[in-house]
What we know:
The chain has helices at 6-10, 18-35, 49-55, 60-73, 77-94, 101-112.
Amino acid sequence: MHPVDAKKLVGRPEAESSSAVAERVKRAREVQQERFRAEDIFTNAEMSSRQMKRYCPLSKPCRDMMEKMIDKMGFSARAFTRVIKLARTIADLDGTRDISIQHLMEASSYRFLDKRNIQDL
């Protein structure tokens, strides 16, 4: 066997530039501004449960994933709400209309990484 070059094996993806991140954030804020133009709120974090039902519909696979998260990670109703709102923001940053399983996984990892391994889902 030949020794493996660690740098080639691990690799480092190119980091997104600060200006690119700032542009994504700007676009996400514009999306939220348009979404909530007829509401008394400005950000996803401020959504009520009624607004969440309207602006954060989940596909069947996403609903199934959230059920698994609730069962395996012991999410409270409050944690569930926060994960959905954060997933909506992540989807906005990605420039996508719909929340995906990846958005839910990322959102839950920020909140519960130290509790359990979400990869077991």
